[in-house]
Amino acid sequence: MAESERRGDALTEVPVVPEAPPPAPATAPKEEDADAAASSLNRANSFAPTESTECTPTETVKVSETLLDALAFKFPEAEREDLQRFLTARKGDAEKAAEMFAKHLQWRAGNLPIQLTEEVKAVLRGGLIFSQGVSKAATPCIFIIGAFYDTSRGLTVDHHVQATLYALERVLSGPPPTSRVSVFIDLRAHKGARNAAPDLFFIKNLASILQDNYPERLHQLVIYPFPWIAKAIWHAAKVFIDTRTREKIELVTGDASEGKPVPEEVFQFIDKKAWPKEYEGEREESIQYLV
């Protein structure tokens, strides 16, 4: 339909724009809305900021909320904080974040909670990993004493991975619950330990699981003391670690021989009073292992 408007002696057709229909009432997401959710993700991605997009801080927040709303529509039972972590891991791409989160849910359903088998208990009791204290950034700390990594007693790489995930799940769930952790890896030789060389299979398997299922959970990873001989291992291992995670890793050089002290540079990230007294720290409480 159109109306005619006289301009001088000529008639000009002026289109009449129909009024926009009223917005539909909000309803809870249903299974049959899957196509709508996919469409919502596509629309959200069209608003995702790129390197060439100029946005004010306010506009960026609005875009972020749009992306989160799209993901929340598809995963109504998920916490927004969790969706935000996966969205960040996929650099604001809502479709890729949705795909990653869907795979994560499948992984959780098949792997969690971690089963405390006798082998997993043996790893946890063997001194490899424990949690104690908080860092200077107020994040709970997980300690990994590499000298106690031991696959010579019938324990496999997978048993060590499972034990590490069990520790991480325990720390994240609290009390109190937390969203990020700091990890300190001790590469020194220790009396009574196997003192085996770092296992690249363990590093690769664990890194893959953590990147796919625990994005943005790491606040900082401090590896100490980092001897020159370990550089070759690091160059081989870092290919399994995404760029964003590598930026959170601090390599503190020093002598990894048995009996050598913790490098002073480590205490930039944690106070000595939070450091285990069993490992030259000043924390009064003894280490409480997870099992």
From TrEMBL:
UniProt biased composition (Basic and acidic residues): 1-10
CRAL-TRIO domain mapped to chain residues: 116-287
UniProt cross-references to Gene3D superfamilies, sorted A to Z: CRAL-TRIO lipid binding domain
Membrane-crossing residue ranges in chain numbering: none
Positions with biased composition (Polar residues): 39-48
Superkingdom of this protein's organism: Eukaryota
InterPro entries assigned: CRAL-TRIO_dom, CRAL-TRIO_dom_sf, CRAL/TRIO_N_dom_sf
Biased composition (Low complexity): 49-59
Region (Disordered) location: 1-59
Matches recorded under PANTHER family: BINDING PROTEIN, PUTATIVE-RELATED, OS03G0850700 PROTEIN
Name of protein: CRAL-TRIO domain-containing protein
Organism: Chromera velia CCMP2878
